[in-house]
Amino acid sequence: MNDTFLRACRGEKTAYTPIWIMRQAGRYLPEYQRVRGGVSFLELCKRPDLCVEVTLQPVDLFGMDAAILFSDILILMEAMGAPLDFHEGRGPVFAETVRNQAGLDRLRVPDAEAETPFVMETIRLLRRELQVPLIGFAGAPFTCATYLIEGGSSKVFWETKKMMYTAPELFHALMAKITAATIGYLQAQARAGAQALQLFDSWAGILAPVDFVEFALPYVQEILAALRQFNLPLIYFANNGATLLELSATSGADVIGLDWRVNIGEAIRRVGERAVQGNLDPFALLLPRDQLRARIGRILADAREARGHVFNLGHGVHQFTPPEQVRIAVDAVHELSQRS
Ligand code: CP3
Fold this sequence. Notes:
The chain is an alpha/beta fold. It has 16 helices and 9 strands. Helix 12 links the parallel strand 5 (196-201) and strand 6.
């Protein structure tokens, strides 16, 4: 078992810097497209045999140091009672938005084993196959709330901010419900065999720091505190979060995920005694080989003083990325970080 990733998360010495990449299983891989050709995205998420297959693809192809469960953050919202669909080219769509008390009352806190059994089954099956650690995940409550309130992806988040500023009690009640559901969901993932857990806060970066403190961070803290008993590395990734780093460091996470908009050395000084994960610009994978390797070398050098460093992209790999470039990046991280 290659435990380099877990050791780096815990701030222990490693022979080299481990790497996995966000969205490592997905559309940039022809192997994924082949599986996805036969089923819709939601069907895929509910078929443990296929989830296992696509989870393993990038690990086997490139030698990633960790696997991430193939699923989606919105699967839990569907289990809470929000009807979900994925439209080709438009992303996720919730037919019923949550914008008032009646909408909130329609949501339930599900029993994760009973209502998302395919997720737990995928984890159990993967643990039999994998030679690297398995990361489980969920969306952070703020990010999940934006999808429920907006009814899908958004650029301006008008409805979300309208609820925060004009109906804060309703907003907090929604956050509390998502938080309760997420705790049950991630605890079930830990019991099924997940070896690390990541909270994705893709939209936290749209918040002013005061609003992050009032509306988002306390719920992340509550979730991470409820997972502490499992003694697994906990990762918190707030995309566009460079202005929130000191606050994110109080989330209770062992590892702070970094997007590419901040220098990793500066970020390490700001998060203190925490390991970090990141932070190559996903589009830097388009660089010619030598420049890509040099860019990776810079990040590794700037991260020398980290308590622990898990190499990753600063956000998910883009769907048009040539897979060969991912191979170059993984090999470069492994080679350039060798410690004797
Ligand atoms: O490999 C992995 O990282 C595991 C799988 C994974 C997916 N989504 C698969 C997926 C993970 C960890 C996620 C998380 C996720 N999902 C986030 C947080 C991370 C981030 O990117 O900010 C968010 C915001 C979502 C919601 C979501 N899912 C959107 C907005 C979309 C549509 C946009 C897009 O990129 O297509 C999805 C679809 C989705 N989730 C795909 C995959 C592989 C593409 C689906 C397809 O095959 O058509």
